[in-house]
C-alpha cells in the first residue's frame, strides 16, 4: 500500500490555498513561491474546491450567458446604407472563404506533385535572386 508523504501538505497546504484565495495568485506563480509541483498545487486547489463549494476559487469555469437571439419579426428595419454594407460584408466573406479553399487546394496539389515526382517545388525562404 502506498503511503502519501504528508510533510509538504501539512507545511504548505494552508498557505497555498490562502495565497490563491486572498491574493489571486496563479498556479504558475504559486509554483515559484512554494517548492511544490504544478500538479500538486492544481490537485490541492481542486480538492479544496470540491470540499468547499460555497467558497469562490479562481480557475473554476463559469457558464457564460448565452446571447439573446432576436426573432426576425422583432428586428428593427435598418437603413439602406447599413443593409448595403452588410450585404457587401457577406459577399467579401464568401470570397475570402473561396480564396482560402483555393489556397488549400494549391498546397495539396504541390504536396502531391512533390511526393509523386520526388522534386522540391516550393521556393525556399530567403533564396537569393
Descriptive account of the structure:
59% of the residues lie in helices and 0% in strands. It is mostly helical and 129 residues long. Helix 1 packs across helix 3 (38-51). The longest helix is centred in the C-terminal third of the chain and has 38 residues, at 80-117.
Core attributes:
mainly alpha; 4 helices; 2 domains; 0% strand; 129 residues
State which percent range the strand residues make up.
under 5%
Largest sheet: none
Total number of distinct structural domains: 2
Helix content: 55-70%
Shape designation:
flat
Which class best fits the helix and strand makeup?
A: mainly alpha
Helix-strand string: HHHH
Annotation field: number of helices: 4
Distance between the termini: 70 Å
Entry summary:
The protein is mostly helical and 129 residues long. It has helices at 7-23, 27-33, 38-51, 80-117.
Describe the secondary-structure layout.
Elements: H1 7-23, H2 27-33, H3 38-51, H4 80-117
Helix pairs in contact: 1-3
